[in-house]
Model the fold of this input.
Amino acid sequence: MHDTYDIAVVGAGPAGMTAALYGKRAGMNVALFEGRMAGGQMSEAGTIENYPGFPDGVAGIDLAMAMREQVEHQGITIIDQLVDRIIPSADHTDLVAGGITYHAHALICAMGAHHRQLNVPGEAELIGHGVSYCATCDGNFFRGGSVAVVGGGDAAVGAALYLSRICTQVVLIHRRDTFRASQRDIDRLSHTSNIELHYNAEVLRLEETPQHKLAHIITRSTLTGKESMLNVDGLFVMAGHIPSSDLVASFVQCDDHGYISADEQGATSHVGIWAAGDIRSKHLRQVTTATADGANAAEAAAEWCAS
Done:
């Protein structure tokens, strides 16, 4: 027998939790599927300085837990299971999670994105043994040590700055000669004495100790091809993200990068399915834009359910 809801929200990041709240306030019976930690990528952030209402900033995990508490307080059904399959039809969607099939009239996709790996030799084997994708989650394991960060965007620069406060040395490796991060954070790099910048360099492979820990990072110059060895305790890969759209990509239109194409209300190419947050094709992916997406999608889905 199907458990039936007006709106199913898949993903419990800021977009998904906001969508659940707005759907509930619109009088809908809402189920929020939370397969991993509440907050998504937001929970991995150190201090979020650009979310309104927090003049001194707010820790990402604290904001995530506050949002989850609000969802719980509203009496919204939270299903702590990864969704394994989504089966759409003209007027409803079935979702399979934990061996149970759930039925929803409207679906809001808020699965976000996941970390992009380097896909170099040694990386997969050393995840959790010196290789990490979240500086605020795992930085303390390397307190007082030396680490490297790979990437050139806001996440990489922010991770390097964060790690510089708890590690003796941080090496920031970037394939190009300029960063794509905010100018404010780029300026901070030049004033942080224990951050060493390696421009025009790429990670070639990782080598491990006999104890199955990270021993060396082998890099290669993108200009000369010369290889170099870095002796560090940890490597933080901040090389971007891949949209988690696999569950719906076969029946919902996506852009060339796999992000779901949707209008300003989050409506996708499939009737009854909306997209919100980092999974949606758009210019800016921030907590503020995710929450706005969630609100818009939920209002549109509620109107569709009531029509």
In short: The chain has two domains: 3-114+241-306, 117-237.
